[in-house]
Write a structure and sequence with these properties.
The chain is mostly beta strands. Helices cover 7% and strands 45% of the residues.
């Protein structure tokens, strides 16, 4: 009887808060983009350098909603404008109405874009077949005030994507003879190395001259480790020569750390919390002889870091040769969730510090609430065998550190798993 009552205490556990924005909204439309523009850590760096850094002296409101009765459709609406509004200033408003065939697969979809500026009405569509790795997509401006270039009449694209290879091309049906293709890319991955090349014919008058003009070509090579799951650390380093005129060196690192906490509102076995820290750097240097403005240097850099301390607070800062910014975001995980952000921006050329504000309401991405039961366990070797036999009160087995290290994410909520393995 005494042995039955004297049970070994449960293993210590670490809370796993949900990320503020994962997967990023840009990942929902990645099949419309060249893989060259998204790989090499570019998508992660863009989120680090842009998200929650609101424009100086401006506000931004975003609403992201989907109906409970039909999870296949959703709406994303954005309104932005100056804080000190004058009759000369324009309030910019736009909205996306989206339908996707599979709730768990964002790569086959149709959306309608409406705006008070060009294009007024635009349709985008993509169909991807993962069994064959083949996809087709199109962007069609339906209503537009001014159609200046061939791109204003629509763009079609074909692509292939697997775990280690991606290639594709885009064309403009209205100018197949003069501008074919609009762009083309090829990216390949071998182990931890990724290399790619992209062709965009913006220079030259004839097809032969365009292919031979090095300013129409870009190439990059990158080294990366880790998965795309937010629970796994990752590192990406890239060197790129863009259009034979600009050399770009960048790297991005995602770190998952555990810090000890003593929370009186949690159970005794909760001993810590998971924090997410991102760090990125980008250096751009001109390597051609093109003349630049007196105010624009031949090289520029920016460094940024973010720290998500818990499920509610996100701190971000970036320092660059032109501007520096700091941002604080607070998120309440209601349904829908609400996020308020404030950022301060210092212009090193003009001088002065200005502020921007942002508000978001969302029930688009599922919220994995911060909880101690199923997702993540901080274990010592003599506790792992015990944790494997425990069924917690919500009926799920704990996620072990060894499972995450080995790439087994099946027990995790969908929003904490890696993105699909399509290069």
């Amino acid at each position: 009887m005494g042995n039955f009552l004297d049970k070994e205490p449960p293993p210590p556990m670490v809370l796993v808060p949900p990320l503020f924005d994962f997967p990023p909204l840009a990942a929902r439309t990645r099949m419309l983009e060249s893989s060259y523009n998204l790989l090499f850590g570019k998508l992660a760096l863009n989120c680090l350098f842009q998200d929650y850094f609101e424009e100086a002296k401006r506000f931004k409101t975003m609403i992201m909603l989907k109906p409970v009765d039909d999870p296949h459709v959703d709406l994303v609406a954005t309104v932005s404008g100056p804080l000190d509004h004058t009759p000369e200033d324009n309030i910019v408003g736009n909205a996306y109405f989206r339908w996707q065939s599979d709730v768990d697969d964002p790569h086959t979809f149709v959306d309608l874009f409406v705006s008070n500026s060009d294009p007024v009405l635009q349709m985008r569509s993509c169909a991807y077949y993962p069994k064959y790795g083949v996809g087709a997509f199109g962007i069609f401006p339906l209503l537009q005030k001014n159609r200046i270039s061939s791109q204003d009449y629509g763009v079609l694209g074909l692509r292939y994507g697997s775990e280690n290879l991606s290639f594709g091309t885009t064309v403009m049906p209205s100018s197949m003879k003069d501008e074919f293709p609009k762009s083309a890319w090829l990216v390949s991955k071998v182990g931890r190395l990724t290399a790619g090349v992209q062709y965009e014919p913006d220079y030259g008058s004839k097809d032969g001259a365009k292919y031979r003009n090095l300013k129409n070509w870009s190439c990059a090579i990158g080294y990366g480790v880790g998965s795309s799951s937010p629970l796994s650390p990752s590192f990406n380093f890239c060197l790129e020569l863009a259009r034979s005129s600009q050399f770009i060196a960048s790297f991005f690192q995602h770190v998952v750390v555990q810090r000890r906490v003593k929370n009186p509102f949690e159970e005794n076995e909760v001993v810590g919390i998971t924090n997410y820290i991102d760090f990125g750097f980008e250096l751009l240097t001109r390597v051609d002889n093109a003349e630049t403005s007196n105010k624009m240097p031949d090289s520029s850099f920016q460094v940024a870091a973010s720290w998500q301390a818990n499920k509610n607070f996100l701190f971000k800062a970036k320092v660059g040769s032109l501007i520096s910014s700091a941002s604080l975001a607070f998120k309440s995980w209601w349904k829908p969730s609400f996020t308020f952000s404030i950022s301060a921006t210092r212009d090193h050329i003009v001088g002065g510090t200005n502020y921007g504000f942002g508000i978001r309401a969302e029930n688009l991405r599922e919220a994995s609430y911060q909880r101690a039961d199923p997702n993540y366990v901080m274990l010592t070797p003599n506790k792992e065998h015990l944790a494997e036999g425990i069924v917690w009160k919500i009926g799920k087995r704990p996620m072990l550190q060894s499972n995450i290290d080995s790439g087994n994410f099946e027990g995790l909520p969908r929003e904490l798993r890696p993105l699909q393995k399509i290069l």
